[in-house]
What does this fold into?
Amino acid sequence: MKVPLPDRVTLTEICPRDGFQNIKTWIPSETKLQVIDRLIDAGLRSFEITSFVSPKAIPQMADAADVSAHVLKRIARDNLELDAVALAPNLRGATAAHAAGLSHISYVISASAAHNKANINRTHEESLADLDTIVKTYPGLHVTLSMSTVFGCPFVGAITVEQVLWLIEEGVKRGARDVALCDTIGVANPLQTAVLIDAVRATFPTLEIALHMHDTHGMALANMLVGLQRGVTRFETAAGGLGGCPFAPGAAGNAATEDTVNMLHRMGVATGVDLARHLRAVELIGEKIQPNLMGHLANARSYSEFDFWPKNKGESHG
Ligand code: COA
Ligand code: ZN
It folds into this structure.
């Protein structure tokens, strides 16, 4: 039986942002950059590299400008086509990202008003007003709406599909170009994911959507598979399975990039990622940042056990 799946997807590597932000002890900038370099060496070409947020809220992101400068230098040096994105929560963050030379931001806004307040101390109206100003001030800036808690909120529980659609509409109206649907606390189930994607597709047929799934309940890959079957072609994943929002209690890490790559390649879906090289980045994360990684492949016996991969189009890293 032929199951229709996209031939190729884009993985946005969010370990340097979502992963590192959740590590309490300071990671020296040099270590962050070594990890990013290894991830680039593995073939990843879409990244959330950092966030321009208050260092009081997230001290780990205080070196956002330095990290950005390094990545931009690497892009120029190696003539890379690489999408370097920074998260921004307000006009100030967007201004800093723009000043750092970046042309793409993830503008974070939570579907849950309570989580928006806890995370970025704003009402929806305040967040949307800043989005207006950002798009008007920097018309060339690519703004992705990074929508937290669309599948559930740690404070109020369920989030309705209508609430998510309302916020997407308000964001798109103000110039957001695309949307990432984020399961911030990792509670979505595959049926719920299907329902939300179908609703977003039906309401905004031309809008590009990405999935950002945490793995708290172990359903991140299953949720991504449902997205894949519905034609989603961008997924935000983190090397090693790091990740979590410090202002969303109870969240575990993201779907691990290596687990996602493994699943996709085995199904013949290309990612451009060389898994063996990617695992070298994961090794570095394990050595220098977080010894207990949530990702499955990081804990598998050895890489050679994957030699039985079928010879299909996803096996090569093209
Ligand atoms: N980058 C750096 N500093 C910033 C900033 C930004 N984007 N926005 C505000 N600040 C600074 C202000 O200058 C001020 O500094 P001061 O106390 O030294 O004068 C301080 O942060 C507070 O500013 P204010 O505008 O009153 O913000 P706030 O206290 O209401 O906090 C946010 C709002 C958005 C700045 C803060 O909640 C935040 O950075 N949250 C990020 C949360 C996050 O990253 N979560 C994980 C990702 S989903
Ligand atoms: Zn996240």
About this structure: The longest strand covers residues 104-110. The radius of gyration is 18 Å.
